[in-house]
Each structure stands twice: as structure tokens, then as C-alpha cells.
Amino acid sequence: MRVLKKVSEIIADGGVLIIKGPNLGSFDRVWHGNKWYGFSDKSHLYYFTPNTYQMILKRAGFSIQKIVFQYWDPVTHLMEIKLGDGIRADHPSETIDKFIKSKKYSSFISKGIKRVLHITTRLLKLKGRDLTIYAKKKVDL
User: Fold this and answer.
1) What are the per-10-residue average pLDDT scores of the chain (141 residues)?
2) Main-chain phi, psi angles of 14, to 5 degrees
3) Which residues pair with residue 1 across a beta bridge?
């Protein structure tokens, strides 16, 4: 709260704060349990769910404009297990994006199956490890 209140003092009225962080409420955290990658990152003092992120931001004088989730991708997760190449489903999205664009990924599974799993993942709302929050500083009247 101290840091967010300091940011609120510095940022202009109506300014936007963008926060990217781990999602304690993610499917990925449930899947990996105590072995979730977010827990191994010692730079985090606290872990938040989308609700707790919203609560502290509102307390600090921000209104949530948008929350963007990175969705859990079961195809990528299975590929990582199958290939055993050290890339895990709870690695940063840049690593997974790079892997998805590689020939290994596209040659392993057909586009039709990828599409069905992608749609299923979205419908089930299996939210991934990270989220990005856009919050606007409330204007003092």
C-alpha cells in the first residue's frame, strides 16, 4: 500500500498505472500447487488474486480500467511435457510465444486441434499465471 500510495502522489490525476504480475488465482497455480513458478520468484513479497489486486488498487486511489489475462494453453503444456525441453507452462509468456512459433510446435499438432483446444480454453476461462491491470488514478474533486 505504501508503494501504491507513493505512486498515486507522483502520477498525474487521470494518469494510468500498468501492473503486470503473477496471478495467485490462476489455473497454472492450481495445476502446479506448491511447485508453481510464481513461488520460486523471490522478488515477490506478496501474491495476489485478481480480487486482491483490485482491492488494493482501489484503496490506493485507482479505478480499474481493464484486466488482461494470459490464458493457460493446454496444448503448449502437453507439448512441454512431451518434448521435455525444459520449457514449462509457467514460464514467462515470451518463452511460450517463441516456442509456439517454432517448427517443433506446429509440426506436433494440427491447426484444427490447436483451434479447438484454444476455444475450449477460452470458454472454460482457464486463466494463466500472469495478468496485466490498467488502473487510472482517480481525479480529486
Assistant:
1) 91 91 82 79 85 93 88 61 52 58 61 63 63 88 55
2) 85, -5
3) none
Report the half-sphere exposure of 39 (CA within 13 A, side-chain side). 11
* Topology at the third CATH level for domain 2-137: Rossmann fold (3.40.50)
Distance of CA 31 to the CA centre of its chain: 15
Whole-model pTM: value is 0.62
Q: Which three cell numbers stand for residue 31?
A: 495445476
Describe the strand order of the beta sheet including 127-137 as a list of residue ranges.
16-22, 127-137, 62-71
What does the alpha-carbon distance between residue 132 and residue 122 come to, in Å, rounded to a whole number?
Answer: 17
Secondary structure of the chain in HEC code, one letter for each residue:
CHHHHHHHHHCCCCCEEEEEEECCCCHHHHHHHHHCHHHHCCCCCCCCCHHHHHHHHHHCCEEEEEEEEEECCHHHHHHHHHHCCCCCCCCCHHHHHHHHCCHHHHHHCCHHHHHHHHHHHHHHCCEEEEEEEEEEECCCC
Is 77 within 8 Å of 37 (Cβ atoms)? no
The reported pLDDT for the residue numbered 40 is 78
